[in-house]
Amino acid sequence: MPAGGDSPGEVLVDRDAIQTEVARLAAQISADYGERPAHLIGVLKGSAIFLSDLMRALTVPVTVDFISVVPYGPVTASGVVRIRKDLDEPIEGRDIIVVEGICASGRTLAYLLRNFQTRNPASIRVCALLAKQCARPQELTLHYVGREIPDVFVVGYGLDKDERYRNLPYVARLGA
Ligand code: IMP
Ligand code: MG
User: N or C: the chain end with fewer CB closer than 10 Å?
Assistant: First the structure.
């Protein structure tokens, strides 16, 4: 383990709390969709662990696809992202739920929603396990949110720092 500011510190959401949120979100989505099939779109790679737990807890008919994006230039500036791996299947006419591990500024999700909208799905909803308490684009609605967390950098349960710590079973603050 590297010492100091680059290793996981204070646990913000422990293993049990995560599972409680996953169960709650799954129950909410299942109640909202009923018999209607939900097409889950995982935003790689941060959503992978959350998505795999969430989909197993859903009682609605589920299909799944993935997308991977990278920010263009300075992450903070434009909110323009490049699609590194696009969806495998069309989403036209489908009820899609975009699944994210964490929403920070919301630029990534706002971009994805604009992009998906042009492909004419029947509906789009967003599910994020974590949402940072920070300013987000007004047009961005997060329909299903697990935990609101402070605007600090976190790792674990799929979330990385330079590709590390995704395997931690809890969410911890980095370097504190
Ligand atoms: P946004 O576009 O600012 O909402 O940032 C979204 C992306 O940045 C997420 O999909 C994550 O990949 C990454 N990200 C933002 N905050 C964190 C964090 O605290 N830990 C790890 N990844 C983060
Ligand atoms: Mg990352």
Answer: N
